[in-house]
Amino acid sequence: MEGTTMRMILSAIGLTLAGQAIAAEPVTVALDWTPNTNHVGLYVAEAQGYYDDAGLDVTILPYSDTSAGTLVANGVAGFGVTGPIELITQRSAGADVKGVYAIVQHETGRLVFNADRDDIQSPKDLDGMIFAGFGGIWNQIVSDMIKNDGGKGEFETVTLGTSSYEALANGQVDFTLDIETWEGVAAELEGLEQRAFRYADYGVPDQQTTMLVSSDDYLDANPETARAFLAATLKGFQFAADHPDEAADILIEANPSVLTNADLVHGSMKTLVDGHYLVAEDGTIGTIDAEKFDKLGAYLMQSGTLIDENGDTLSEKPDLSAYFTNDSLPE
């Protein structure tokens, strides 16, 4: 009788565990662009089974024209990849978005121009030149760099998006902005000689350029799921930092139709690791830097970029500490 009872108990436990395995918690993540090395930790965590081990069924949504922050704020995705500028701008305008993980630890963006331009020695020399831009806050950033270097901050802008890099290479424009860890690597592979100015060297606050965001609604309703997801994701990014070539191969295998240039992906991973972008020099990974975040928010406030939910320019600096949290990260 005791043996029969024990077998029944063990059978019930087995069925319960099987049920738990089948009923993995669903999590959706929205990307900010087509898959690239900024997303590598997500794909590594998926391929290595970190999400499975955490009891999660993670779906990485295809990139769309709707921003990841908007998808998160509207409950379409539990998490999204975005930048702190977009996060601060959207939250100030009333969107329910909240930073929860810093993917990149310091600024990857820079102002670039062809290396043979002897007439460009510092940002003030860009006055009156042609900038291939992207719209939004970026014109303000360029203008501020020039002014902080002693120039007027006046230049001609043509908005070309990703065509900016071809226009720069062909000499149709004088300068543009790029991401060192992607377009910068691509330029090197193509043999294009360029020079660059970093934003922070000319008065623009350093920022953790790529983040994972969630929402207060989601975090309040799913605290354990959020912690499990971020712990597994951090593990994925740590693996990528420790094994960049293997991580690059995992990313390519997951996105073969998009990532067709293996040298670019591997080169980008090397730059992310060598530049201490995924893991900072002091070993920090994932943690959102409160000081950097606050300085960036103050800069956006001073530039007149931030508006409220009614479309009015903010007259007072918001409480930026409410815009992000590190509480869901593993200790």
TrEMBL record:
Gene Ontology terms, MF aspect: metal ion binding; transferase activity
A Pfam cross-reference name: NMT1
Catalytic reaction(s) noted: N(6)-(pyridoxal phosphate)-L-lysyl-[4-amino-5-hydroxymethyl-2-methylpyrimidine phosphate synthase] + L-histidyl-[4-amino-5-hydroxymethyl-2-methylpyrimidine phosphate synthase] + 2 Fe(3+) + 4 H2O = L-lysyl-[4-amino-5-hydroxymethyl-2-methylpyrimidine phosphate synthase] + (2S)-2-amino-5-hydroxy-4-oxopentanoyl-[4-amino-5-hydroxymethyl-2-methylpyrimidine phosphate synthase] + 4-amino-2-methyl-5-(phosphooxymethyl)pyrimidine + 3-oxopropanoate + 2 Fe(2+) + 2 H(+)
Listed GO biological process terms: thiamine biosynthetic process
Key words of the record: Iron, Metal-binding, Pyridoxal phosphate, Signal, Thiamine biosynthesis, Transferase
Domain spans labelled SsuA/THI5-like: 36-247
Cross-referenced SUPFAM superfamilies: Periplasmic binding protein-like II
Signal peptide: 1-23
UniProt pathway annotation: Cofactor biosynthesis; thiamine diphosphate biosynthesis
Complex and partners: Homodimer.
Family classification: Belongs to the NMT1/THI5 family.
Summary of the function given for this chain in its UniProt record: Responsible for the formation of the pyrimidine heterocycle in the thiamine biosynthesis pathway. Catalyzes the formation of hydroxymethylpyrimidine phosphate (HMP-P) from histidine and pyridoxal phosphate (PLP). The protein uses PLP and the active site histidine to form HMP-P, generating an inactive enzyme. The enzyme can only undergo a single turnover, which suggests it is a suicide enzyme.
Protein known as: Thiamine pyrimidine synthase
Organism of provenance: Martelella endophytica
